[in-house]
Amino acid sequence: MQEREIKLLFKAGVFDSCQAIPVSMARGWTLKFVAKDNEVVTLDLQRSKSEREFKSLDGAAAVARRIGFEWLNVQIGDLKWREKM
Question: Which domain of life is it from (predicted)?
Answer without folding.
Answer: Bacteria
